[in-house]
Amino acid sequence: MNTFFAILFVLGIISTLILLITSFVFRFKKKHNTKKFFKFTGIAFIVSIISFAGFGMSMTPEDKQKAEEKKLEEQKNQDEKQKQEEDKKLAEQKKQEEFSNYAQNIKGGAFIKDIKLTNNEAEITYYDSYSSFKSQKPDSNVNEDTYKQYFATGDAIEKMLVSEPARLLRQFPDVNGVKMTLPFDGKTYSINLDRKSLNKYIGLKIESLKSEDQSWQKKFLNPYVYAKAKRAEYFKKFVTVQ
C-alpha cells in the first residue's frame, strides 16, 4: 500500500508540474482552453496531496518506528563522521605544532623561514640572505657578520644538512621524508631525504636510535656527522648543490 501511494504521489507531482507549465504557455498564447488546463492542474495537485496523506496514514506503527530509527541512525552516522573529521584535523594541527616547535630548535633554527608538514612530508626552507632574514625579524640582535659566519665557518652547512634531516626523521617516526633547502652565498643547498633511503644507507632504522642510550651518538652522529670522510660521502649522495 505504501508503494502504491508513493507512486501515485510522484505521478501526481509530475502531472501537476507538466499541466502547470502547459497552462501558463496556453495563457501566454491566449488559447481558449487555458481554464481547462488550470482545472486539470488543480485536480492533479489535489491527487498529490491525497496520495501524500494516504502514504502517511497507511504507514503502520512498525513502519513509522523503522523510518524514525533509520533517520536517527543516519544522523548518528553523520555526527560520527563529522567528529572523526574534526578529530583528524585537530590531530594534524597538533602534529604540525609539535614538529614546528622542535624544528625551530635544530641547527640553524633561528634562520628558518618556513616549516611545513603535509601528509607526513616535511619541508624546511631557510632565508636566502641576511636582508631577507632581517626584514622578517627586525628585532633580532644577529648582525650580518654573525649570520655569514654561522654558515661559512668550517663545515657548518655540510654538518647541518647531514645531521638535521636525520634528526627530524629520528624524532618523528610518522614523518616519511624531510626536504631542506638552504640558499647561501650564491649557492642553493638542498636535500630531500626519505626514511627508507636513509635506513637502507646506514643499515639500521633511524627511529630506533635514542639519545638516552647514546645509540644516536654512537651509530649516527659519530660515524656520519663528525667523521669527515663518511660525512663527505653522505653529503655527496643525498645533497644537491646548485
Write a structural description.
With 242 residues, this protein is of the alpha+beta class. The chain has two domains: 58 residues; 138 residues, no CATH class. It contains nine helices and five strands. A five-stranded mixed sheet has the order 1-2-3-4-5. Strand 1 and strand 2 form a beta hairpin. The protein starts with a helix and ends with a strand. The mean pLDDT is 84.
Strand content: 5-15%
Uncertain regions spanning at least 5 consecutive residues = none
Gyration radius over CA: 35 Å
Largest sheet: 5 strands, mixed
Q: Order of strands side by side in the largest beta sheet? A: 1-2-3-4-5
Assign an overall shape: elongated
Distance between the termini: 78 Å
- Note the total helix count: 9
Instruction: Write down the secondary-structure element order.
Output: HHHEEHHHEEHHHE
In short:
The chain is of the alpha+beta class and 242 residues long. The chain is built from nine helices and five strands.
